[in-house]
Design goal:
single chain; 384 residues; DNA polymerase, domain 1; hpI Integrase, Chain A; 16 helices; 12 strands; Tyrosine recombinase XerD; DNA integration; DNA recombination; CB; DNA binding
């Protein structure tokens, strides 16, 4: 039993003769005298460990292709490969982050059969110091799914995650803008790039991922409609989140007027060619578009972080309490509900929801100061 170093082109490789089997482990080191000496010392250490019966390949080369299927990190890799083409790129990036930033650093070198419920619960308590319940639940869900790959492959029935429950905090209530706040924001001077965008944030009901990639090819100013065909998340254009979100919305007058004004700025902009990821999360379709909300410094549409920065500056300038830019969508639902003039079903259709449950649960909050005087109306009706 021994270990040694050899050059492979411009890099180094370690060979390990263990129990009659020769293993080759590439090193991410250039074949310089300094690194060669370090590699030799490493090989000598491995040789010594072999003589003492303490050598473990996984400790020296955790990502080795020669490792047996005995580590969480191995099954995490399989899990990520399996789901890569099954979920949206933004979702995959989130899952990959859970694995690389949390699961592998803590559990990557352990054998799946060594994972105990007690250990996981202890880890959850530690995570609570730095992460929200929602994030923790997502991390543990990924961990459970990684572990399930091993259980399925080895026909193991015991699931250490079965009796783990993570209680989430109540969903934060929507924090919509009042009419007075909306008027103050619209009347406060702002950058020309977003002047016409502001009314559309409040009066279209679009999420920011839908608002950013809107193109003139989607808009019919005569009919007063927008066809919602795509979204833009983390640098990727893709079809709408679900089929229900692919819809035609009817424009309220403030939004329609703003778009007519915006046409003078970007209606004749150059066409840009983009690739839109389709619902299978694999194929792409080419589209040629003239984007509506152009950052004129870059001659293409805004990125989310750019709008969020401008939005924060504008709130401060208008002396309106700070809230996220996505509250525009909440405001749309809440203002229409508060008006008493619009059935919830119409609002749900505009937002792209199948029914009204999401309206009340996530977006709708009656704004007391903007509600009609229903009591007077009822009294007048009774006295007739």
């Amino acid at each position: 039993m021994a270990a040694g170093i050899e050059c492979r082109g411009n890099s180094l490789r370690m060979w390990i003769l263990n129990k009659g089997e020769k293993l080759n482990e590439p090193l991410d080191w250039p074949a310089t005298p300094e690194y060669t000496e370090r590699a030799k010392q490493w090989a000598e250490l491995i040789t010594l460990e072999m003589k003492m019966g303490k050598f473990e390949l996984s400790r020296h080369f955790p990502n080795s292709k020669n490792l047996k299927e005995n580590q969480i990190s191995y099954y995490a890799k399989i899990y990520l490969e399996d789901i890569k083409k099954e979920v949206a790129p933004s979702t995959y990036a989130s899952y990959e982050g859970h694995v690389k930033n949390h699961i592998n650093p803590k559990w990557g070198r352990l054998h799946p059969e060594d994972i105990e419920t007690k250990q996981v619960k202890k880890w959850i308590k530690q995570l609570k110091d730095t992460h929200s319940s929602k994030t923790i639940r997502e991390i543990i869900t990924r961990f459970s799914q990684v572990h399930a790959v091993w259980r399925d492959e080895n026909k193991v029935a015991f699931d250490p995650f079965q009796n783990i429950t993570i209680h989430q905090a109540d969903t934060p209530e929507p924090d919509p803008f009042t009419k007075a706040e909306i008027n103050r924001l619209l009347q406060t001077e702002t950058d020309l790039d977003i002047e016409n965008l502001l009314p559309c944030l409040f009066w279209t009901g679009l999420s920011m991922s839908e608002q950013i990639p809107i193109a003139w090819e989607d808009i019919n100013l005569e009919k007063g409609t927008i066809q919602i065909n795509r979204s833009y998340v983390r640098g990727v254009y893709r079809v709408t989140k679900n089929r229900r979100r692919k819809r035609e919305i009817k424009l309220l007058q403030p939004a329609l007027d703003a778009l007519k004004e915006q046409y003078h700025f970007s209606g004749n902009a150059r066409t840009q060619v983009i690739e839109v990821l389709q619902r299978d999360n694999h194929s792409y379709k080419e589209e040629r578009l003239r984007f509506v909300w152009l950052n004129r410094e870059r001659s293409t549409h805004f990125e989310y972080h750019e709008l969020r920065y401008r939005w924060g500056k504008h709130l401060k300038k208008a002396k309106v309490r700070k809230r996220g830019i996505n509250q525009g969508r909440h405001t749309f639902a809440s203002q229409l509900l508060s008006s008493g003039q619009v059935p919830p079903e119409w609002i749900a259709e505009q937002l792209g929801h199948a029914d009204t449950s999401m309206i009340y649960k996530h977006y709708g909050k009656l704004i007391a100061e903007d509600m009609p005087d229903y009591l007077s109306k009822i009294n007048q009706y009774i006295q007739k």
